[in-house]
Design goal:
The structure is a single chain. With about 400 residues, the protein is of the alpha/beta class. The chain folds into two domains: about 290 residues, FAD/NAD(P)-binding domain (3-Layer(bba) Sandwich), CATH 3.50.50; about 80 residues, no CATH class. About 25% of the residues lie in helices and about 20% in strands. It contains nine helices and 16 strands. Strands 1, 2, 5, 6, 7, 8 and 16 form a seven-stranded mixed beta sheet that branches. A hairpin with a 2-residue loop joins strand 7 and strand 8.
Length: about 400
């Protein structure tokens, strides 16, 4: 490939303790956690709202916080965000979980919610906590001194700017900064899935009958492949989502399929209200971390666990998230969380969904504060101290062996 060398002077902006790149739920949790610890935090978000796939991506489903037998597994900031997501809008929390308390039931502790109201709430939460928010601002280039990140070059309406920082959290969802830092990463594959929202006359009638405005809104799909690839067209490739060409092909193909469906509908009986404001990729790129979580790690205790989590699709299955899935030894001030944490196969799906993304974001936020306070490399902090801190925040670190049920 032909190369072009660009030399230019870039203004240096204020020093931050922590830069969080990417304002999805993992990034929001990391920034909020660090700010609550008293750190000066900058969060950059390339779009115009927080929440990522959980809001502008229209994947407004808070996956289960429980094991499917009435035991709450995931709490901490994940449950805090769940309750915030429905505070000013509608919810689908099962009646058995309205008070958030564990009980004997097969109903899962889940909810759908208004994605845009939740996005507004995330902005309020982080702004009130003192996080500096930069919207329409893309964290482009990590400025590396060996394996140490001295700061991040951003691209915004202000042009290219350099923000120095002591610690950097990459929650872009695609490991953008970590890839560019030289940290080893692994590229994933994504199915042909694209979901928008529409209002129909039939939905409006249902809304009037029930008195619930949300009933007027329904989904409209482009590609309709499932999480497991069912419905993936044979003539459509899987998408990496890590190049401009891959993202563009995904969007063009999906938008054309959606339009073909709309052409067959009564044009006066519906109106498309929202298309996803970001590609709905789930597994694009993740770090090759110090440990890679695998499906066979279910029911395994890890000494460096930062959270117990549950399988969102199958009840009973329990996992612990090793801190090593968020770090790579040698990179002293870079950490990730959410869907770019180190996992493979179905374990990647388990780790990337909303509750684990939030809880790993919370862990990353606490970890960078501890690293700053102790002068330790992010991968070499005192894990027991981090675990104790997370436990005081309501996070379950290790699942109870009494909750292991293997007959399913």
């Amino acid at each position: 490939m032909e190369q072009y060398t660009l030399q230019m002077q870039i203004p240096v902006r204020g020093q931050y303790d922590v830069i969080v790149a990417g304002g999805g739920v993992a990034g929001a949790a990391a920034a909020l956690s660090a700010a609550r610890c008293g750190k000066k935090v900058l969060l950059t978000e390339k779009s115009t709202m927080l929440g990522g796939l959980a809001t502008m991506g229209l994947i407004n489903y808070f996956e289960p916080l429980c094991n499917g037998r009435g035991k709450k597994i995931i709490s901490g900031m994940a449950e805090e965000f769940l309750l915030e997501s429905v505070k000013y809008g509608w919810n689908t929390i099962p009646p058995q979980w309205k008070d958030g308390q564990s009980k004997e039931t097969t109903a899962r502790y889940i909810t759908h919610y208004s994605p845009y109201i939740f996005a507004l709430q995330l902005t309020e939460m982080l702004h009130n906590a003192g996080v500096t928010l930069l919207f329409d601002c893309n964290a482009m280039i990590p400025v590396m001194e060996g394996k140490h990140c001295a700061g991040v070059i951003t691209d915004s309406k202000s042009g290219l700017e350099l923000y120095p920082a002591k610690m950097v959290v990459d929650t872009t969802g695609d490991a953008d900064l970590l890839r560019r830092s030289g940290m080893p990463t692994v590229t994933g594959q994504n199915y042909f899935t694209y979901i928008g929202r529409q209002v129909t006359l039939e939905g409006c009638r249902k809304a009037l009958e029930t008195g619930e405005a949300r009933q007027a809104v329904s989904s409209i799909c482009g590609g309709g492949a499932s999480l497991y690839g069912n419905g993936q067209p044979e003539d459509v490739p899987l998408f990496t989502g890590t190049t401009a060409e891959s993202v563009s092909e995904y969007l063009i193909r999906n938008q054309k399929v959606m339009l073909d469906k709309l052409k067959k509908q009564d044009r006066l009986a519906r109106e498309v209200t929202t298309l996803p404001a970001m590609p709905q990729f789930r597994t694009t790129c993740r770090i090759d971390g110090d440990y890679t979580l695998r499906e066979e790690d279910k029911y395994t205790h890890f000494p460096d666990s930062v959270a117990a989590i549950c399988d969102f699709d199958r009840r009973n299955f329990l996992y612990e998230v090793p801190y090593r899935t968020l770090t790579r030894a040698g990179y002293d001030n870079l950490i990730t969380a959410g869907r770019s944490a180190a996992a493979v196969g179905y374990a990647w799906d388990i780790l990337r969904v909303i509750p684990p993304a939030i809880i790993t974001g919370q862990a990353a936020g606490e970890a960078v504060c501890q690293a700053i306070d102790t002068g330790k490399a992010i991968w070499d902090i005192d894990i027991s101290h981090l675990q104790n801190t997370l436990e005081t925040r309501g996070v379950m670190i290790h699942f109870d062996n009494n909750d292991i049920v293997k007959e399913d």
